[in-house]
Amino acid sequence: MEILILPTAGHAERLAARIVADRLTAKPELVLGCATGRTMEGIYGELVRISRAEGLDYARVRTFNLDEYVGLAASDERSYHHYMQEMLFSHVNLRPEHTHLPNGMAADLPAEAARYEAAIAAAGGIDLQLLGLGNSGHIGFNEPLSSLMSRTREKALAPQTRKQNAGMFGGDPDAVPPRALTMGVGTILEAREVLMIATGAHKAEILATATEGPITAMVSATALQLHPRCHVLVDEAAAARLAGHEYYRWTLENEPDWAPYRELVRA
Ligand code: GLP
Question: Which residue puts its alpha carbon closest to atom 7 of ligand 1?
């Protein structure tokens, strides 16, 4: 795992979008794992801007989202299907049949979960997985005590998560669907590269626990410590509780992999 500390959330968003754009340019048939949430909004906005400015071609790109609420139709404005249309899919030349989200309306949810896993495998696995960090320490909707080997399945949401996501549901946590279909921690760990983004002072505590704390099923993001190619982009506010911040700053300034991105960080 590598942690990169950027001056502001805007810098973290621009760097994340730049990395996605570069991976897509290097591999036009990229399989991109998409995340949702407020953190991702700025990243998709910037990715759309870069895509237009540079004429990025998504014709062969395939996407797989982490999760979807159980009981929300794709047409529901509060669904992640709708979110993805609004934030990314409708702005680039992705083919609709190349975009995948779990179907929260499926009559047989275990069968839908198995179908989703098979679709990821048939696409050759995920090249780059984007991740946000939930207040409960979740990645996807892998709430506390999710098996670190779990696969796509139905999961009950933690009260904390329903509170965090209430904004889309008129501010009422009880209006947030209580269950979701989510990729498992094991599914996420199989992505060939992982990019987690956490910004804002409200993420400082959970970010430190997730990255520097012991690996535990209580905080599914700690499983990322096992991943061989995981980058964590954070802003100064989210980095406030990181014990190793001096080393992480050194990484960004000195590791050759990040040399092409240093200008972007200073801008
Ligand atoms: C939701 C998603 C998670 C995401 C989280 C972060 O719960 N299911 O995948 O990580 O939101 O939310 P935010 O970026 O709004 O803090």
Answer: 134
